[in-house]
Amino acid sequence: MLRGMYTAATGMVMNQYRMDVVANNLANADKTAFKSDEAIFKSFPEMLIQRTREDGLGWVPPGSFDLAPITGKLGTGVEFNESYIRFEQGAVKKTGNPFDLMLDDRAGERPGFFVVNTDRGERLTRSGSFILDRDGYLVTPDGFRLQGENGPIQIVKHNVLIKENGEIWYNERLGNEAETGVNETSNQWENPVLLDRIRIRTVEFPRELKKEGNSFYADTPESGPIREFRDFGTAGEPQILQGYLEASNINIVREMVNMIEVQRNYEANQKSVTTQDSLLGKLINEVAR
After folding, report:
1. pLDDT per residue as tens digits for the range 163-192
2. What is the pLDDT of residues 36-92, one digit of tens each?
3. What is the 3-state secondary structure (H, E, C) of 121-169?
4. Which residues contact 275 (CB under 8 A, 6 or more apart)?
5. In 10 A of CB 87, how many CB atoms?
6. d(Cα 142, Cα 140) in Å, to the nearest integer?
7. How many CB atoms are closer than 10 A to CB 23?
């Protein structure tokens, strides 16, 4: 009976972890390029149940347990194992903003990331919602600068073209006088000059990255160090889409179903604990008489 209460209690703890993960996913469903988390659990080792004699003692013949018949297995509960990040590609959202960038890596083996210089050092991010600060640098909404291969990226507001391979071009003829956005097919696009290339990186095991605030990821010993792609911008590798953003990969319907399932499992385990506690109390009262 006590073991049954313990098993039900561990089930309640498991479902509390699951509820925290589901609630966090739903809270960030509208966040640009947010990646959902998945909670993984593992069971404690099962125990074999052996029949005992009428006096409550086990069959213990010298040198063997063969006379103690096995009647079945007993589960001993579950425990939280890990929470990993699912990096499936989110939906494509067209914005038309030249500073909105999206990494399209549906055909790639592993996801790519923008590199941002934060107050804690360089961090990876999937969120491509950038703005232009007063000094002309591409920065996150919190003011952290996007990194190119040559350092922070400084551009002119209406004179920038970002290609799929991450190259940043500007129109030398227009210089700082551009008043409207330019594009590759515009008749204003003359004398293009390569300014820099956006730094796109990855890691060997993305699911082992550590999430930080503001949509950032930090590498860990398990994820491996931050490294370059072999042929970024080619087929099979991530590509940058200018004027687009990646939506979160949260499936709201699935998460709501998960939330209902977790709640019902928690209530079932809670009822089991309450019932066994009541029975145990009655047993103690009978023995005490």
Report:
1. 988 899 887 766 554 444 444 444 455 678
2. 998 887 776 666 666 555 555 555 554 455 555 566 666 666 777 778 888 989 999
3. EEEEECCCECEECCCCEEECCCCCEEEECCEECECECCECEECCCCEEE
4. none
5. 17
6. 5
7. 13
Q: How does DSSP classify residue 240?
A: E
DSSP state of 204: S
Contact 33, 127 (CB under 8 A): yes
Interstrand relation of 239-242 and 192-197 (parallel, antiparallel or unpaired):
unpaired
- 253 falls in which pLDDT band (50, 70, 90)? very high
pTM of structure = 0.75
- Residue-level pLDDT at 110: 81
Query: Hey, what amino acid is at 73?
Result: K
Query: How far apart are alpha carbons 24 and 83 in whole angstroms?
Result: 12
Nearest alpha-carbon partner for 125 in 135, 115, 110: 115
Domain residue spans of the chain: 2-85+251-288, 92-246
For residue 25, the tally of other CB atoms under 10 A from its CB is 24
Rg, the chain, Cα only = 29
